[in-house]
Backbone:
């Protein structure tokens, strides 16, 4: 059954200013919690400053020792706080760079995969295209070229009945932006009328580049026949199991050598047990 | 920060071994003095980090930032297979070897982890679930789970847990390989960890709503308050933003940032412009000097951004000093703390001088200087400049109160530093496509807002512009000046809109339920009237300018416009068929009819 509310309470609920947090304590922590939180804040600040300030020149030793003391590299990696803020620094690029990606198939024909954006982007450019950035990064950071070529080989195989191409070729394309003073008279320039420079970069063979072959597990997903034995070029890795196996093998070998040596050099005392056992067996 | 400013740009390696030991010692001494400062003045440390603050800015930040995280994730959908599955760029073994940190040793594809505790060091290094398994089904499942946890974080459902899950799962994508990173992704990663440390679910969250609703319906005699939260994660966020800007400004040390051509090049790059026709506009803007000026302003604004932090601290000090709440400390502690600050500046000045000695090239530069002269100049400048700044500030404070107020309000004010940033990022977004970089950068401005400023923003959003001559708004003569100032006047002179009247029954349950509406009424647009004709557990709404009283789902739908928490329902209200559903959703939230 409904009950009428006291007018004062109705005022408090419907018209009074919103209540404040009733806790009068201005501080979030006191005592040990305050100390622990303070230590964490201090640690984070020092790690952050060590990570973001220059680590060379006169600050090199200080920065390195601070990093070692704090183990700040591990902390920044674990918390995903690794950062670098060199945006358009020290200068913005003054060249447009693209990587043309081509495959050579077993019949000798060469196909441009149109992975570069040169002259291919639709304007206005609304939706962010990370592939354009990745394509440029392949030129700036060469370490990505081999895995990228390996992926091109695998992807080609996936979309061509499991048959890999022979080779992936890269060509660096670039146009140089003119200095603004040179284009004021023409009030700008057509970016696609700039001279296109080309430079062939080292290519990658699909048969010999690590991971450029579609592994059997993925081939099975698409119903392709397994690769011939030894065709998959894996990378070298050493896990705890590999180390444990290697260690066990060494121990086993050493034990075998010791047993053999003991058997070959019968000595009094130490060798008696072995001989005794053998004798017992007979 | 100062070290970043003193750092020379990349150049030939210079042998500094002659002073390396002494520079290292001086830098350690500087660090020790900085730490000692807070030992001498612990009350400042407490004020800086251990305060409790209103949770609303953090709550709003959670929502806006969470939406940007979700947007960035959804943006990855077309590349999900390429970037993260074993049918893409990396087979997991190679990704693990290159980017898996300790996991490459601790985990074996056939035998798993050596010990159960091996998971801990694996998690401590860069960890991604995809380093263990990356078939498309698994990757899509993790992607779905990530979007779900980020959505829960945005809504504030089990906020601490959903934030932890979001941090872990989002980093599963980012830790797999860095090949696709952009600046925006770095900001996103860094602030997600800081979000993990923040109790940002105490406002604008379903967690807070459910708690307060439970308390109010259980008999609370006031509308339950929001719980204050520790300030330190928000303060670290402010510092992090200052580091981002200061570092990027200091690193922009190439000649294009000095000759004023940097922005012309940035705007003319194929990878960024929205349309090639922009190049003509950029050329024109360069010709009239606008772009060179903007280049210099950008560099200076970024490098000097930490002044905004100084401003926040100074305003706080002045406010509390005039209110008499600033802590009083013994003279010896105060003097010792000043001496320690001077020692820190002295240490940095000394190292700066050494840097000038080693890196200055006497043959370059506008004025011929020997290396010793350059060293002396830098040391003197580094010592004199802070002293001059402090002296000027104290003089203004004592002799020119108006100028002092202007310095606090504008030169060191958030409105200057954040407004320039806002304009800069909005312009970047219009003319360049840099993914969600702009959105995430603007989102991380929110921790800079105080609760009072946030209240003012809601009030402005919910208010109406005053008419010319109404209230304090001046009546301007027609002309170019009027045309120019009218939009500013509309923003500046505002008055409250007429309230929506909520009619409710007089019984306690009905009153408590309509009182729940106040928790969602951020612009104070509601007033309440008891009306015996309204049945218990129901409400009716009178919309200003409309004499008809609305009841049921129509009343619920009318409230969508003024309760920001329901703005997401607005498109529903426009679509025939689901309108009723929108109204019903609002009423259901408050258990009303």
Residues:
């Amino acid at each position: 059954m409904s009950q009428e509310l006291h007018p004062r309470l109705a005022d408090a609920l419907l018209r009074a200013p919103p209540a404040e947090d009733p806790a009068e304590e201005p501080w979030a922590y006191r005592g040990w919690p305050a100390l622990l939180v303070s230590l964490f804040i201090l640690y984070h600040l020092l790690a952050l400053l060590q990570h973001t300030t220059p680590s060379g020149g006169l600050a090199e030793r200080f920065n390195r020792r601070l990093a070692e003391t704090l183990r700040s590299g591990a902390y920044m990696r674990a918390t995903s706080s690794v950062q670098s803020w060199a945006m358009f620094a020290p200068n913005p690029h003054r060249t447009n760079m693209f990587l043309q990606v081509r495959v050579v198939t077993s019949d000798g024909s060469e196909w441009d995969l149109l992975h570069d954006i040169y002259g291919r982007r639709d304007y206005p450019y609304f939706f962010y295209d990370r592939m354009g950035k990745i394509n440029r990064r392949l030129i700036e950071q060469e370490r990505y070229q081999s895995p990228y070529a390996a992926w091109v080989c695998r992807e080609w195989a996936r979309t061509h009945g499991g048959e890999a191409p022979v080779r992936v070729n890269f060509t660096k394309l670039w146009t140089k932006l003119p200095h603004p003073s040179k284009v004021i008279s023409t009030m700008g320039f057509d970016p696609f009328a700039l001279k296109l420079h080309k430079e062939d970069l080292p290519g990658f063979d699909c048969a010999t580049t690590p991971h450029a072959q579609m592994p059997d597990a993925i081939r099975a997903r698409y119903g392709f026949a397994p690769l011939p034995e030894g065709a998959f070029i894996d990378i070298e890795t050493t896990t705890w199991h590999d180390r444990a196996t290697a260690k066990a093998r060494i121990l086993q070998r050493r034990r075998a050598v010791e047993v053999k040596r003991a058997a070959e050099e019968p000595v009094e005392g130490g060798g008696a047990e072995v001989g005794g056992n053998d004798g017992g067996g007979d | 920060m100062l070290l970043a400013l003193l750092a020379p740009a990349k150049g030939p390696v210079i042998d500094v071994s002659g002073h390396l030991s002494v520079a290292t010692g001086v830098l350690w001494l500087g660090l020790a003095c900085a730490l000692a400062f807070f030992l001498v003045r612990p009350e400042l440390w407490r004020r800086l980090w251990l305060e409790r603050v209103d949770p609303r800015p953090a709550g709003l930040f959670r929502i806006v930032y969470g939406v940007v995280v979700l947007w960035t994730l959804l943006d990855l959908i077309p590349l999900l297979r390429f970037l993260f599955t074993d049918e893409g760029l990396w087979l997991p073994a190679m990704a693990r070897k290159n980017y898996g940190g300790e996991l490459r040793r601790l985990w074996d594809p056939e035998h798993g982890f050596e010990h159960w505790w091996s998971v801990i060091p694996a998690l401590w290094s860069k960890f991604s679930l995809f380093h263990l398994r990356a078939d498309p089904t698994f990757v899509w499942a993790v992607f779905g789970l990530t979007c779900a946890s980020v959505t829960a974080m945005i809504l504030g459902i089990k906020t601490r847990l959903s934030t932890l899950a979001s941090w872990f799962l989002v980093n599963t994508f980012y830790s797999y390989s860095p090949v696709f990173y952009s600046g925006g992704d770095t900001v996103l990663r860094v602030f997600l960890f800081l979000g993990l440390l923040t109790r940002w679910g105490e406002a604008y969250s379903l967690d807070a709503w459910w708690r307060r609703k439970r308390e109010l319906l259980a008999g609370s005699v006031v509308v339950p308050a929001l719980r204050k939260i520790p300030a330190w994660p928000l303060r670290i966020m402010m510092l992090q933003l200052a580091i981002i800007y200061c570092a990027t400004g200091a690193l922009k040390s190439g000649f294009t940032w000095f000759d004023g051509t940097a922005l012309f090049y940035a705007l003319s790059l194929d990878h960024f412009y929205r349309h090639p026709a922009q190049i003509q506009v950029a050329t024109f803007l360069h010709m009239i000097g606008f772009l060179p000026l903007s280049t210099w302003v950008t560099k200076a604004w970024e490098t000097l951004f930490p002044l905004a932090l100084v401003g926040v601290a100074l305003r706080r000090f002045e406010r509390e000093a005039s209110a008499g709440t600033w802590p009083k400390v013994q003279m010896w502690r105060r003097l010792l703390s000043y001496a320690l600050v001077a020692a820190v500046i002295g240490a940095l000045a000394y190292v700066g001088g050494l840097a000038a000695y080693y890196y200055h090239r006497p043959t370059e530069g506008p004025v011929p200087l020997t290396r010793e002269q350059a060293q002396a100049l830098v040391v003197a400048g580094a010592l004199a400049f802070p002293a001059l700044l402090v002296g000027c500030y104290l003089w203004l404070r004592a002799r020119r109160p108006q100028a002092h107020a202007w310095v606090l309000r504008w030169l060191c004010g958030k409105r200057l530093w954040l407004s320039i940033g806002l304009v800069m990022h909005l312009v970047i977004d219009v003319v360049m496509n840099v993914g969600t970089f702009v959105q995430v950068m603007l989102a991380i401005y929110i921790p800079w807002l105080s609760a009072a400023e946030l209240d003012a923003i809601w009030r402005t959003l919910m208010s109406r512009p005053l008419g010319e001559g109404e209230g304090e708004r001046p009546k301007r003569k027609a002309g170019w000046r009027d045309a120019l100032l009218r939009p500013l006047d509309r923003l500046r002179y505002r008055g409250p809109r007429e309230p929506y009247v909520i009619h409710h029954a007089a019984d306690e349950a009905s009153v408590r339920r309509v009182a729940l509406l106040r928790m969602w009424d951020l612009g104070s647009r509601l007033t309440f009237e008891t009306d015996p004709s309204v049945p218990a557990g129901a409400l009716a709404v009178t919309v200003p300018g409309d004499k008809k009283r609305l009841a049921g789902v129509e009343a619920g739908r009318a409230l969508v416009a003024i309760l920001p928490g329901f703005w997401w329902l607005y498109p529903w209200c426009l679509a025939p068929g689901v309108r009723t559903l929108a109204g019903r959703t609002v009423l259901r939230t408050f258990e009303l009819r």
